[in-house]
Every structure is written in C-alpha cells, then in structure tokens.
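Sorry to interrupt, but I need a hand with the structure work. Can you supply me with one protein entry, sequence and fold together? No commentary is needed, just the two lines. Leave the record below and I will have a look.
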Amino acid sequence: MSIKFLPLRPFAVSLLLTVGFFSACASTAKDVFKGVDRIVAVGDLHGDYDQYIKVLTTNGLVDEALRWAGGKTHFVQLGDVVDRGPDSNKIIRHLMKLEKEAKKKGGRVHVLIGNHEVMNVQGDLRYVHPGEYSALITENSEAVRESYIEAVYRHRVTINPTLATNPNLVMQGLKKEFPLGFVEQRTLWEPGQEMAKWVASHNAVIRVNDSLFVHGGLNPHTEYQKLSKINRQVRKEVSVPFNGEGISNNPEGPLWYRGLAENDAEVELAPLIAMLEFYGVNRIFVAHTPTQGAILTRLDGRVVMIDVGISGYYGSSLANIVIEDGTLHVMHRGTLVPFPGDDFPRGDYLDIVSDLEPAGSRLRGYVNSLDRQAAPAN
C-alpha cells in the first residue's frame, strides 16, 4: 500500500499541468527500434552513482569528462535508478544529459520505468535512502519543512482533534516523519513536477531488434497488448495523481511481474513462447529480481535476468549485457565474456565470471555452493 502524504499543492493545479504534458509525450515516445548494431543493457542501479559510472566507462559509453562517447550504441537501463542508495538524483541528472548527447551522435539512451520510479511519483517512499533527502537540503530547508509540518499538523487535527492536546509531542514526531529535504524531494517527484515528468516521458517496455526489454516482466498468461498501449497506460498513471489500481502498481503488471524470473518451466515456458511469437522477438530481458551477482538465463534462454545487484545495497556486483551485430556477450567486471548458451555451457560461464570476482563475493559463494552440490559423495 502506498504511503500518502499531504499534497504540496492543490490537485486541480497539478492536474492541469500534467494533462497537457501527458498529451504531448504519449504519442512521441517511440518503443520499437530496428537495425541497431550495438546494445548495452544494464539492470537496477538503486542510487549507486559510482557503480553507474563504472558501467558507462567499462563499456566505452562516456569519455573522461563523462560525455557520451558511445556513437550509435543504444544504452538500455531497465529501471529502478532510484531508492536504496543515496545518489539517485545525481544519476538521473547525468542520464538526462546523456539522453541528449547520445541522440545527437546517432545513439540512444533508453531509461525504462521501474517500479521504484513509480513508487516515488505515487508517494510510496519506504525505500528512499536518507542520503536522498540530505542531498536536497538548502539554506531554506528548515523554514520550508516548518511550514509544511504545520500544515500537516492542522490537517491531522481536523481528522483527530485529540492530537491538539499535546502539540509539541506531535510536532516532534512530524519532524522525524518528514526529515529535512523531504519537501524538496516531493517538489521534484510529485506528478507534474520535474522528475515525475521525466519518468513519464519514458517507456515501460521497448523492443530493440529481436529482443524485448522491461523492468519486471510481461505476464504471458494475460491478454497480449501492443507495446504502445502498455506504455501509454503506464505513462498516464505516472502523469497525474493516481489513487487507484493500475498496471503501474499491479503485481502482474510489467513493472512488478516476477513470473518469468521465478516460475517453473511447466508453468511459464509454453505461454512465454507464444508471447514472444506475438511480439516477433526471440527473448526478453528483465531486471527487478536480483540474481546471485551474474547475468543468468532461464526458460531455455528466452529470459535473461540482468539485475545482478549493482548497487552497494546488494553487494556492488558489476555486469551488463552487450549485443553487437546480433551476438550476445556479458561484460562482467570489465571483461567481455561469451554469453551462456548451447555453445557455452552455463557451468563454464559461471566458472569464468566467478574467477573475475573479488574474494568473498556472493557470486563466488553461490558458485562454490553449486560445486559442492555437484560433487560426488565419498
């Protein structure tokens, strides 16, 4: 359930601002791209700027000044830039710049909408890192917060008049509930504001060449929808104040669905094959569900899980997908590794990427556990 806060401005004003924006962006967000020679795709970043920069540099996407150097490469980030780490705003500011620079050079930066972006827009702030608030503090933050919590206090007293019997205690609680920088965060993220508008200018799912890219997954057990329809609906839901249920916060929707990452083949494979045929693609790349630190495939290689836990919150793993001239590779800690498949067994792949890991990494522990399970009993 989303945590609801007192809006920073009246609903009517916000609605007027966002309806016009939605009308403008809904018809212009292209979601199918063909003839792309090079694709670099990465999963959840979760507020870790340093790891984000490592992805860009190890794949040759930026120069020393962190300007776009990827030429015609399409860089796909599968959502969840925000939360859990302190530098979401810093990453987003750089992505905004890269989007413009890449397009001028014939490339593209595709930042897909993740469930955590939607949570921030809709006011569910359970996973916002304290550093996110701190980064937004200005010399006026004390006064801004004081004004806001006074308004919240008056609002709550109208609902529960007994709160007025001990106003000092209530105000102390409100200061803990709404830290310095909170109002500034909401000023950026409420529908119609800068970050929310940026999120709503993107897609939830795209097709590049013969592959789909989506944050959570497309549910193959439901009626198939055109990508444009899915994307319009998600953008609509993050463009205006949203108080109900929709595909943007539905566990079966594209930002949350985990079936492709977790369900058995008996349940998922046949419907998945039919769904991929409907979209005319060979595979689907998903994030959202972290792996043990390596990019992994499942369901006969038709699903590629690329959320390796890049953020420090998950252990600072470092891997992404590279598709060049139709050939898939994994960039694992700066080393280009063949993609696991028929010609390169999963076990050999895991041995190689495990050897690239620092001592004590969770991937090394995972591979060692697999080895122990496979070892014959004495």
